[in-house]
Amino acid sequence: MSLLKLENLSYVYDSAKVKVLDQISYEFDAGKIYAVIGKSGAGKTTLLSLLSGLASPSEGKILFREKDISSLDKYKYRSQYVGVVFQSFNLLQNLTAVENVVLSMDIAGLKIKNKKEFAMELLEKVGLSADESKRRVLKLSGGQQQRVAIARALSYNPDVILADEPTGNLDGETQQEIMEIFRELAVEGKCIILVTHSPIVAKAADVVYELHDLSKNRTKKKEAQSKVQAVI
After folding, report:
1. Cβ–Cβ < 8 Å for 199, 43
2. Residue 230: its pLDDT value, please?
3. Are the C-beta atoms of residues 204 and 183 closer than 8 Å to each other?
4. CATH number, residue 30
5. Contact, 151 vs 125, CB < 8 A?
6. Whole-angstrom Cα distance, residue 51 to residue 152?
7. What per-residue string of b and e applies to 116-131 under the rule 16 or more CB within 10 Å gives b?
8. What does the longest C-alpha to C-alpha distance in the chain come to?
9. pTM of this prediction?
10. How many domains does the chain have?
């Protein structure tokens, strides 16, 4: 059984009446890494917003464990089942790495006896030392900040990790290190969905899922619709 399923999913920007996603149907399974690719304007970030429940489809459904997410409590869905990693990290710069992770657990309302200890374990899992975990985020490198963002997303043990250009600001070696973290998470059974322009990320994924820019080919529906490009 698929973890996430798209059923005839479409999205239209109301302000411009522009359709960016058109009748997409696809299934995402646990234990796999999906790289979502496509040119700017193809709807990659929009798709992540829809999957995370931050936006609602104009048509169609998104099912999580066979339940339409429109019928679920959106706060519970985002704070328990889906973890989001942003390209810009979205960390509180004046807090330490461990404080950022603990804050995420507080917001999610997790009942954990020693949140700081658990946060330190998560940060170690993603490759940060105890010393680095105690530093303020603004004193960390971009790669280290991305590790903090991943640890924060893992703090409530979500089934799905959504990441928007998670390696976009990182060098090639650090990209590979971050992808290794995602690989380990997939082995643990999590569904990883990454929006990317990086060939390194696409090559490391199990499935590459391509979105086409509808504005380039509105009269050719077959060519415009999303499709699976390759299984690596």
Report:
1. no
2. 43
3. yes
4. 3.40.50.300
5. yes
6. 19
7. eebbbebbeebbbeee
8. 58
9. 0.87
10. 1
